[in-house]
């Protein structure tokens, strides 16, 4: 049962994130320390250095031989349900958009499991729940964040090529224009003189090969398999070299988000309607899909409850970093992270109470 001490532990885990956020916001808005160009460089530093090392560090320390395969299957089914619904909406609805399908997928499925999920789930269901939340984080990094990274890189590379062939050297400047959509990009790439699909894919794979986020998690999980098979630990000199940067991963990501907020006209950068839309996807659509997937594979009892509640954890900070780097609805993701963490505690406790009552 959750007590005030447990709530306090979650608050203790969350408050430092907002301290980093406020420092980032103040460094631009109040103290004028960074220029807009420097702000972009800070986000790239987070994207290409602290975030991959953070991902490698937590992945390398899991024990994949103790994973709950039914839980992982339920998670995969829930994600595939959301992908199918969004793909149908993008293709068949007059309001459908592949750009918004990408962002909606992030809002529905990608969670901040480690910061909020671990202390709260431990208070609710003990160590078993913590193990499941960590499993969910690793699978999210291995599969879903990797797919998201590929889709974002494919979109940006296509925009870059199509814009360059249409406008010469000025094409790069139009990458992040909000009016661009993937449907139009595909039409251009299928023509304005553009390279073939496979030529485009070569460029995408090359860029992903240069992006440490593409392979940090795979190196980490490979290390986890080897280390747990042969029962040895990472050399301290190697571990220290990784930790010195990885410990800054979450903090620098929140700092970067604060900088991004400071550059916007309003604190709620995406507006009230999109904020509500993001909260609905985060706290209703995601858990609903997870409940369907969990019941489909036969999860029962506390494992079923953990699966549903962990799907309602606040928005992944990584999803914002990727959105900012690739110029796709960063304002929506930043708002989802900030407000999602604020409202997550009462929402998660409500889910816990409802699921216990149903039991």
TrEMBL record:
GO annotation terms (biological process): auxin polar transport; auxin-activated signaling pathway
Topology of this chain in the membrane: Multi-pass membrane protein
Protein keywords: Auxin signaling pathway, Membrane, Transmembrane, Transmembrane helix, Transport
GO CC, any one term: endoplasmic reticulum
Subcellular location: Membrane
Matching InterPro entries: Auxin_eff_plant (IPR014024), Auxin_Efflux_Carrier (IPR051107), Mem_transp_PIN-like (IPR004776)
Any GO MF annotation of the entry: auxin efflux transmembrane transporter activity
Pfam families: Mem_trans
Positions of transmembrane segments: 7-28, 69-90, 102-120, 132-152, 215-232, 244-263, 275-297, 335-354
Family the entry assigns: Belongs to the auxin efflux carrier (TC 2.A.69.1) family.
Role description: May act as a component of the auxin efflux carrier.
Protein name: Auxin efflux carrier component
